[in-house]
Amino acid sequence: MRPRSTRNSVLPFVLAALCAGPHAHAASRTDAVDVFIGTGGDGHTFPGATRPFGMVQLSPDTQVRHFRQSYPWAAGYRYEDDSILGFSHTHFSGAGHSDLGDVLLMPTSGDVKLEPGYPQRPFSGYRSRFSHKDEHAEPGYYAVRLQDNDVDVELTASERVGLHRYRFKPGADANVILDLRSSIYDWSGKNLWSRLRLRGNDTVTGMRETRGWAPGRQLYFAIRFSRPIVTHQLMNREEGVEYKGFAAPGRTPAEKILVEGKALEGTFDFGRPADGTVLVKVALSPVSEDGALANLDEMPGWDFDLERHRAHDAWENALAALDVDAPAPMTRIVYTSLYHALLAPSLFMDTDGRYRGPDNQVHEARGFRFHSTFSLWDTYRALHPLLTLIQPERRNVDFVRSLIESQKASPYGILPVWQFAGQETWCMIGYHAVPVIADAYMKGLKGFDADEALRAMTASAEYGPYGGLQYYMKLGYVPIDLEPEAASKTVEYAFDDWTIARMAAKMGRRDVADRYFKRAQNWRNVFDPQTGFVRAKKSDGTFREPFDPVRSNFGSDYTEGSAWQYSWYMPHDNAGLVNMLGGDAGLIAKIDQVFDAKVDPTVYAHMEDISGLIGHYAHGNEPSHHVAYLYNYAGAPWKTQARLAQIVASQYRDAPDGLAGNDDLGQMSAWLAFTAFGFYPVAPASNEYVIGRPFVERATLNLPNGKRFTVRTEGLSDANPYVGSVTLNGRPLARSMLGHEEIMAGGELVFRMQATPNKEWGKAPSARPYTQTAY
C-alpha cells in the first residue's frame, strides 16, 4: 500500500518511510546517509530535499528574522533550534556566508498571521515549534510535524522543482503564506524589487532582485497549487509605503492580479479540504517567470510518492560511485560526505538551456548544462578532484564549460572567483577556477576546447586590477603596503600559476609553460628562511615588522589564517619547502610544531572560520587541509598516518555537530572521503595522490569507465594506526603516492596495518610524491 492520503495518528511521513508499496525502497546507500550531519555546530549544512547538483534545494529555515545573525544560520537551519520559520527553495551547503532562502512558504491553520514571530513566543506569528522526534530526512526527502500550526509537511524535489505536501487536521482551514521579504541573509534592505502575479485560480508567479552577497541577483519562480485558491491576498508591506492588498473573497477573478514592491507577501486560503491535503509545486528560473512556468513541466502530475521515489533513485545512482565496508559510524560519515560533495556546483539554467550570466544577461547553453555556486577557494583542493574521479564526463565537463562561458560573459574578462546564481561575489582570493580546469585537462577530460580554456586561465592570471596582480607580476609578490592579505595572495597565485604551466606544457605551449613555471616560484619571495615562515613583504622588498606568527592579522597579512597555517602552502613545490627549512628534519620538526603547539584559545577567537584546532592546525578551514600529508615529502609517511588518525577522530562524527567547521560546499566532506580511502590530492593537476592511511576496511570506487578500484585494509583498528606495508595489484608498493592513471585502470590497493610505525616505508627520495624543483 501507499502512504495514507488522510491524516492519521501515526505521522504520514513515518508511514511513507516504513510502508512497502509501489514506490518503496529497500535498504540502500541512501540509507547510510545522515543528512543531519553538519546541521549543528559550525557545519552549516541543511537537511532538506534536493537532487544531485540540483537548482532547487528545498529546506526548512529556523533562524530568527529581523536580526542580522547570518553566520550561524548560513544554511537557514540549525539543529539546536526548536521552531521553523518556513520552507524556502535555495540554500548553500556549508558556506561561511549567508544568502539565498528564496520563496519561503509556510502552511498554517486558523487565523492568518503575517509576521514570522519569535521562537520564545509561541503563536506570535506564523513560525511553528517542532520536535526532532517528529522529523525525518533522507536524500531527496524531508518531513516534519509543525506543532503550533498543526500541519504535517513533506518535501521532495526534482532538479528545478520543489514539491510540498501539507496535511492539515480534518475540518481545519488550510492556508499557505508566501513571504518574499524573508531570506537567510538579513532581509531589511536586501530586496531591490520583487513581484507577485496571480495567474488563474491555482498559479502564482513572481521574481526577486536582491543586493545581498551577489549584488543584482535575479530569481524567478512559479508556484502551482493542487487545489483552486478560494481567497487570497497579495500585498506590499514595505515600511513607509501605503498598504496595498488585493483580495478576492469567494472566487478568484480570471484577469491577472499583480503587486510589486520591496516587501511582498501573499496568503492563500484553500478552505477546508475533505482529505486535509494541499500540494504545492515551486519551479525556479534564472531567466523569467515564463521560464519558471515552463520548468514546472519537469514535474508533471501530483504524485508525491512517485517524485520522492525518483529523487531517491537519483541519489542512489549518484552514490553508487562508492561501495563502503566499515563500522556503521564510519560508513555513515563516508556516505554523508559523498552526499555533501554532490550538492554543488548547482544547476542554474532552464529546461530550454537559458541562464543568466555574470553580465546579468541571458545566455543559452549549447551542448552542456550551465552550473553555478562555485566556492572555488575551498573546493579546488579536494572536491573537484573527487568529482573528476567519480563524475568526470557527466558533470565535470559541465563545470569546466560553465567556468569558461562565465569568463566570456564576465565584464572583467576573468574566470569566476566565488560565483553563485551566475553572479560574482569577489569573495576570497586567488584565481582558483584555474586549477579546476587544469586538473580536469591533465586527467584527460574531453568535451571542452583546451585553447579556449587556456586563454581564459591566462586572462585571469594577468588581470592586473584584481587582488594586487599588477604588483605580483611586476615584483614577484604582492606587497602588503599596497594590497591586503598579501602573503596569502602571493602563495596562492603561485600555485595557480603552476597549474597553468602544467596544462600549457601538456598542450605543447612551451612559451606559456615557461612563463608560468617561473611565476610558480614566486612563493619563495615571501618565505623568510630566518624565521621559517611565509611573511608579508612591503614594496621596498623588506618584510613587514613586527612579526608574530601566532597573530592572524585577519584581513591584513593573511586570509583567514596566520603564518602557522599559510607557511606550508606551496603544494606544487614541497621539495623547495624542505630545502628552505634545512632538509627533511627541518620540515618534520616544523609540522610537528604546528600540531603540538599549546595555543591560547583566544588567539583565533575573533575569526569565525578558524575552528577544529589541533595546535595551530585548523581543520575547520581550508589552508590547513594538506598539511598532515606533508610528512610524506620528507620521507616520514608514518607521521602522516598518526596525524590523520588524530584529525579524523577529533574533527568528524556521525552527529549533527559532526563537522568541525563549515563544509564549504563539500570541501570538508571531500577531504574525509579521500582520507578514508587512504590517499589525498595535495597538488591538483599533478595527477598524483599522496598516500595516507585508510579508515575503512574496504572501499570500492565504481569508476565511470566501468572499472573498479578497491582499497582493502587488513588489521584495521584503533590499536593499529600505522601502515606496515602496501601492495598494488598484488605487488609491493614502496612509494607513498598513487598516479591517477593507476586508479582509473582499476585494481586493488591493500594496506596492512600495525601497532608500530614502519619508518622505512616511503623514506627513500625515489618513493616520495612528485614536487617541482627550482625552475
TrEMBL record:
Residues 292-754 form the Glycosyl hydrolase family domain. It holds the Pfam family Glyco_hydro_92N. Residues 33-285 form the Glycosyl hydrolase family 92 N-terminal domain. Keywords: Glycosidase, Hydrolase, Signal. It comes from the Bacteria. Residues 1-26 form the signal peptide. One of its GO terms (molecular function) is hydrolase activity, acting on glycosyl bonds. Its EC number is 3.2.1.-. InterPro entries: 6-hairpin_glycosidase_sf, GH-type_carb-bd, GH92_a_mannosidase_put, GH92_N, Glyco_hydro_92, PNGase. PANTHER family: PEPTIDE N-GLYCANASE PNGASE -RELATED, SECRETED PROTEIN. This is GH92 family glycosyl hydrolase. It comes from Massilia pinisoli.
